[in-house]
Amino acid sequence: MNYEAVLAGLPDAVIAVDTSLRIVFWNAAAEVLTERSARRAEGRFVKEMFPPDASVVRRLAETLSTGESRSEAEALVERPDGRQVPVSIVTAPLFARAGTVEAAVAVLRDLSRIRQLEAEVRRGETLAAAGRMAVGLAHEIRNPLGAIRGAVQLLARELSGQPRLREYTDVLLTEVDRVNRIIEELLDLARPMQLRLVPLNLHQLLERVVLLHEEGCRARGITLVRSYDPSLPPILGDEDRLQQVFHNLVRNAVDAMADGGRITLTTRVSLNPLFGKMDLGVGQRSMVEAKVADEGAGIPEAARGRIFDPFFTTKDKGLGLGLAICHRILEEHRGAIQVESTEGRGTVVTCFLPIAK
To answer: Are residues 126 and 184 in the same domain?
Structure first.
């Protein structure tokens, strides 16, 4: 058996070093995890590929000096662009026939997927709690709201000859309707979502969304850029619900760009190990990726972990339910949503959707 081929094909990163901490093996998973090629890594000292104080460097050095395995439940690996990936580390010595340590190997497991799943569970629990609250409140609030609306309409009729006072009744009716819309949006988080799943042309759906925003974007000096994959296969989705998602995302992008700029819509097929959903017993599936990228102010770092929480918003006006509902819709489609943002440089929202078979 070719053991090197076995190690090369493992899903976890495997890095082997000799007694001088020079890299002698760097498998494909290590290339993906670190975003550094084996050709560039092998033959160099491990301190050249990672910061000298990095956990993987320290654990390998300890294993070489003691001949004992080391482990770390959670550490960080820094990629060339400065991004840090959470990993678990296990190191083990490799012995020569004479019993001396001649090398050491480190196995690094990417914990990003686990963290993502944990966040999905927490987010789902939050949305479920908000939905239960909405169901309880809807009945208690709607009945008195209906009575208030009826009374205001009668009052407006009585005041029909007094335009100045009619302004007040108009305001009351507008606000009552606004509260009703809030309740409807909350109920969207609670109701079982009945999806009409059919094969859809994603580009046609996006073009309908663009048409709704084109005039508003032109008035604000915003250019809408398409970067579509012409070979994109049909997706399986509910047209109305997905239109709601992309309408919300484009509107958010427009709101973030007070000084104009570009909003770029991108599509492609991907097999993303983090956000491509996995079916137990089946493995990773190819998904269609749809990105909405803006050049706005970006999301503050402190707020990024809460953007899908109901009622959390960074806008001066807004309920903070838009992204929560988008998340729910994509979950119901067995898809996912990812947000990446840099303050002062913009935000990229990526939706992952299933391909129609």
So the answer is: yes
CA distances from 24 to 40, 140, 317 (A): 11, 69, 57
What string of pLDDT tens digits covers the 357 residues of the chain?
565 777 777 788 999 999 999 999 999 889 988 988 988 889 999 998 998 888 999 999 999 999 999 999 888 888 887 778 899 999 999 998 888 899 999 999 988 777 776 776 676 676 667 667 666 777 677 778 888 888 888 888 887 777 777 788 888 888 888 888 777 766 766 666 778 899 999 999 999 999 889 888 888 899 999 999 999 999 999 998 999 899 999 999 998 888 889 999 999 998 654 444 444 344 456 889 999 999 988 888 777 777 777 666 766 666 667 788 888 888 888 888 888 888 888 899 999 999 987
Distance CA 352, CA 273 (A): 12
334 and 215 in one domain?
A: yes
Which whole-number Å values give the CA distances from 220 to 58, 246, 262, in the listed order? Answer: 53, 19, 11
The model's pTM is: 0.60
Q: Please give the structure tokens belonging to residue 94.
A: 């490799």
Q: What CATH number did the domain enclosing 64 receive?
A: 3.30.450.20
Sign of CA dihedral 238, 244, 250, 252: negative
Could you give the residue ranges of the DSSP H alpha helices within 256-342? Answer: 322-332
